[in-house]
Design a protein that fits this description.
By secondary structure, the chain is of the alpha/beta class. It has five helices and twelve strands.
Length: 202
């Protein structure tokens, strides 16, 4: 666990991004297998029918094995797609194995935009989110663009039904003792690393 108490959010983001980028290709592959073993047989993953994931960038832990496992089981899988306008908007679009991808403005591969294949975020069962840092109580530090927080802001207005379930995915080296959360930060139900589960207290 990294001691981050005196660091600002930009400083912490830089520190943790450097930590995950420092992992070797072999360590990244091992972490991806560890993540798969943590999640593939878990009831939260097994029960979900509509699952959003991501394609890794900048040293993020790779959920590709989970993506393929979900598709093999007949689940519907979705990837984030950034809107051309407004540039702050993100949607989730159905993704199937072998489908052609294109780089977005951050050079991250995403499906070619097709509105009829997009699904409202509130009707997904499970979103597996990338992150830069996490703590044991549902705190998440993202890349700073706010795409997930804006897309999920509606959850703050709901007292009961709060689909989808939000789980962060991370390398163990991205764990910190406690993250200071801003008013717009959407808390996670938990984070899964290549080594363990960290479910937030209810």
């Amino acid at each position: 666990m990294t001691d981050t108490a005196p660091l600002t959010r930009p400083q912490l983001r830089r520190l943790l991004r450097n930590a995950r980028r420092a992992l070797t290709p072999a360590q990244q592959r091992q972490a991806a297998v560890g993540l798969y073993r943590q999640l593939a047989q878990h009831p939260l993953f097994r029960r979900a029918r509509h699952i959003a994931l991501y394609l890794p960038n900048d040293g993020e832990i790779d959920p590709y094995l989970l993506l393929r496992e979900a598709q093999r089981r007949g689940k519907r899988t979705y990837l984030p797609v950034l809107h051309a306008w407004p540039r702050t908007r993100m949607v989730f679009q159905r993704f199937e194995h072998g489908e052609k991808l294109k780089p977005n403005r951050f050079r991250i591969p995403e499906p070619v935009t097709e509105r009829k294949r997009q699904r409202p975020i509130w009707s997904l069962d499970l979103i597996l989110l990338p992150l830069v840092g996490f703590d044991e109580v549902g705190g998440r530090l993202g890349m700073g663009g706010g795409f997930y927080d804006r897309s999920l802001a509606y959850q703050a207005r709901r007292q009961t039904w709060k689909k989808p379930l939000l789980l962060g995915l991370a390398h163990e080296c991205q764990k910190v003792e406690r993250l200071a959360q801003a008013s717009w930060d959407v808390p996670l139900q938990g984070t899964v690393s290549d080594r363990d589960w960290y479910l937030a207290p209810r």
